[in-house]
User: Fold this.
Amino acid sequence: MNKKNLLTYEGLQNLENELQDLKVVKRKEVAQKIKEAREQGDLSENAEYDAAKDEQRDIETRIEEIEKILKNAEVVVEDEVDLDKISVGCSVRILDCEFDEELNYKIVGSTEANSLKGKISNESPVGRALIGAKVGDTVEVETQAGVLQYKVLEIHRSGQGE
Assistant:
């Protein structure tokens, strides 16, 4: 049994758009590169041909990866997220107790995580600790640097309060 890939609607759209782009645009582009490289003759020492074949392999691998994610996708309907406790699909404002710094995160499935955009996975140490917490709760997260404490200040739907 494959594990379900939790996705927000935005994450689902992004993957579907990427898949469409890979299948329709990128496949044609790389096929054209391969065709042009073949026309140059000897393939044994043709760097353009090798690079195009590598790119083609990477594209096909990514297509396969996305299709596998989508096949096992479970979309979290963010409008129906229970705001009493933290779950996938909601945004949170937390206080880093050690540095007295407020942080904003959106809790997403592991395939959507992007810490640079403030999206943390429900499977990450911080995400795992936050899941199920309520406003006012303080959660502890064990890291290599020691135990970190975060106090939950606010839980809201994505797009609100951000």
